[in-house]
């Protein structure tokens, strides 16, 4: 995700969590999970058409000027829904990722907070909590990442020989096929690179966000007290 998308996603998460925590809709333990899933669902939905355009620009050497015509033809041929092509597999990977990520993040953070007298999260703590929860979420959602990649490769191969995919295998079917062909190991292909990418990126993103948030909170507080 890009920086603006991540900022919107994190802010949406905070707002949703605050909304859910004050109400009896979910227990406070599960509020981060629900807020994380909803915030990610919204983000994936907004980002999905932009990602599609980015890949079109990169893969088919379409210029910005041709892009408008490209989008119009796609909409005329496949309707508005075609702009959200690939939304399903992306959401299936990213929504469970976020649900797991925020649930564990808040859990690890409160556990680490137990060692501190003040109830304020330090940047270091959010870095550690983000890294740990990102690793757990990345491992548990790895099978969905494998399925997403295999689907993209299959679709790309069909497009290359100009065959219109009439039927796309369901995620469940693909998961079962991978398991039958390559065993559980196949579902967790790319384990190490995924962790090497997820742990630092989650740790850096969340600690930067928490740092910015507390910086501006302090600034506002000082301003209120001063003025
Ligand atoms: N899209 C990710 C989900 C992981 C994720 O969302 N990580 C957050 C940080 S905790 C992120 O924004 N990563 C950057 C990215 O996805 O490009 C995946 O590969 O499964």
Automatic annotation (TrEMBL):
Major location (coarse): mitochondrion
Protein's membrane topology: Multi-pass membrane protein
Top-level taxon of origin: Eukaryota
Ranges for the Solcar repeats: 27-111, 121-215
InterPro entries: MCP_dom_sf, MCP_transmembrane, Mtm1-like
Subcellular location per the Swiss-Prot or TrEMBL entry: Mitochondrion inner membrane
SUPFAM superfamilies for the chain: Mitochondrial carrier (SSF103506)
A biological process term (GO) from this entry: heme biosynthetic process
Catalytic activity of the protein: glutathione(in) = glutathione(out)
Family per record: Belongs to the mitochondrial carrier (TC 2.A.29) family.
Biological role stated in the UniProt entry: Mitochondrial transporter required for glutathione import into mitochondria. Glutathione, which plays key roles in oxidative metabolism, is produced exclusively in the cytosol and is imported in many organelles. Mitochondrial glutathione is required for the activity and stability of proteins containing iron-sulfur clusters, as well as erythropoiesis.
Protein name: Mitochondrial glutathione transporter SLC25A39
């Amino acid at each position: 995700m890009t920086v603006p998308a991540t900022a919107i996603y994190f802010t949406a998460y905070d707002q949703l969590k605050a909304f859910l925590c004050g109400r009896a809709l979910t227990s406070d333990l599960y509020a981060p999970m629900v807020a994380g899933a909803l915030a990610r669902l919204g983000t994936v939905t907004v980002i999905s058409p932009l990602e599609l355009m980015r890949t079109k620009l990169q893969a088919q050497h379409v210029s910005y000027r041709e892009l408008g015509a490209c989008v119009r033809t796609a909409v005329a041929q496949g309707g508005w829904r075609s702009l959200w092509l690939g939304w399903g597999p992306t959401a299936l990977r990213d929504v469970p990722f976020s649900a797991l990520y925020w649930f564990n993040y808040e859990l690890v953070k409160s556990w680490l907070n137990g060692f501190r007298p003040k109830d304020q999260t330090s940047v270091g703590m959010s870095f550690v909590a983000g890294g740990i929860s990102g690793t757990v979420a990345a491992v548990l959602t790895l099978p969905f990442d494998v399925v997403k990649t295999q689907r993209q490769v299959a679709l790309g191969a069909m497009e290359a020989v100009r065959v219109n995919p009439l039927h796309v295998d369901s995620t469940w079917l693909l998961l079962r096929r991978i398991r039958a062909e390559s065993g559980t190991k196949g579902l967790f292909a790319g384990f190490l690179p995924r962790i090497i990418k997820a742990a630092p990126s989650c740790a850096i993103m969340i600690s930067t966000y928490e740092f910015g948030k507390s910086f501006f909170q302090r600034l506002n507080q000082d301003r209120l007290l001063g003025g």
